[in-house]
Backbone:
């Protein structure tokens, strides 16, 4: 069963590592073209440090934002995709991870790439 709330890192402004805390937020709802993933592990990357300390000031970053551009987990809600509940997945969102909430949470709502586009994540 998917809970209504989850723990996540939520950023609004430049935040030193020692001030990063977990917040209680709503679990995102799956929708067409997106898959809800229960995050089992995530990457702590230099990219996230750049976001946390400076890039967060940019106008193109929609705040608040949950950072995280890579994770492994299991599909919790496949929506209209070809994935199935419980399927193990790896997501590498790269630069796309700044246009939607990422993997520093218990669940991540991730877009399913179309077959015609370059695959932004590996499943």
Residues:
């Amino acid at each position: 069963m998917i809970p209504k709330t989850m723990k996540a890192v939520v950023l609004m402004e430049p935040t030193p590592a020692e001030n990063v805390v977990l917040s209680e937020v709503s679990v995102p709802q799956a929708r067409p073209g997106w898959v809800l993933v229960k995050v089992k592990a995530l990457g702590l990357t230099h990219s996230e440090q750049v976001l946390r300390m400076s890039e967060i000031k940019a106008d193109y970053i929609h705040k608040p934002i949950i950072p995280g551009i890579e994770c492994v987990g299991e599909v919790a809600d496949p929506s209209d995709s070809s994935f199935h509940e419980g399927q193990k997945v790896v997501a590498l969102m790269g630069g796309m991870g700044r246009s939607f909430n990422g993997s520093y949470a218990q669940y991540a709502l991730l877009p399913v790439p179309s077959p015609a586009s370059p695959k932004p994540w590996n499943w």
Notes: The mean pLDDT is 90.
